[in-house]
What does this fold into?
Amino acid sequence: MASVFKTDSAAGRQELYRRMDRENLAPLWEVLHALVPPQPRTPCRPACWKYEAIRPFIVESGRAITAKEAVRRVLILENPGMRGQSCVTRSLYCGLQLILPGEIAPSHRHTQSALRFIVEGAGAYTAVNGERTSMRPGDFIITPAWTWHDHGNPEDGEPVVWMDGLDIPMLQFFDAGFAENYPEDAQPVTAIEGTSRARYGANLAPLDAVAPFGKTSPIFSYPYARSREALAALAKNGDPDPCHGWKMQFINPLTGGPAMPTIGAFLQLLPKGFATAPCRSTDATVYSVAEGTGRAQVGGEAYAFGPRDTFVVPSWQPLRLEAREECVLFSYSDRAAQLALGLWREQRG
Ligand code: GTQ
It folds into this structure.
């Protein structure tokens, strides 16, 4: 049908777009600048959750629903720029999970990978493929993709809160999510606690080592006591990195690469009084404060942080950290995925 407008006038173009719209067509030239931006452009915003402000809601949710009924009793940390999407960055999910004494969060498995960083309380356990590992503050624990996992807390235990980091939005993007429930609440225990660590986490590996969890580390628990000791020893030698202080990555001992295929996880020590040089990278990052107080400047925002607080640094926003006391920060991001795809960039200073 011929247009009444000249096609190259503004009105003529709008009319052309309306006609092609019925065929599910759209002109690239109207969106090209947004699709291929000169640098990362994201709805993800800097954010900080002070633990003292959110802890009452965690406690209250413990009275509102049981772990069994909820399946996972978790408060989702939603990025303020993406409310309603259950994500903390575009590619990652973050939640705080509570398990009370005597509770079991029933066994299931899914293709999403999960990490746990223990925030408060000790003595609960998580079970992965027949082996339990008990939780202490600062421990980093992995649930590899498609492994059965349940969480539990003994009757005489104390409430335990941990941070859940999952690649849920990444799997949504790929439409690659599968999940199923185990027929019982708790899977049977088939290995004594510490077996995986003895087999893969003592600088030894079986001669015929086959990766039991595919691309994910065969060690599913990295105790804080050991990582903390390593950081303390490192901090006695040489100078800290100007951008990162003493920062280490949790690795898969069979490859030397990141412990998880999609998520990179890190622990860093900042000496008392240290201020980092500004640095930015393409992996939006979630931080959980293990020890110490300080200040994080994220783009145009600044947050005073203390133990158990969580803050988010969006992609390509400069981060500057100041340690008022000696600080230990845990962090996770999609760096493992970006590195695997050749996308990751960092700009120091
Ligand atoms: O512990 O399996 O926070 O499946 C979200 C989804 C935790 C878990 C979450 C999950 C889990």
Notes: The pocket of 2,5-dihydroxybenzoic acid is lined by residues 72, 74, 95, 97, 110, 114, 149, 164, 166 (CB under 6 Å).
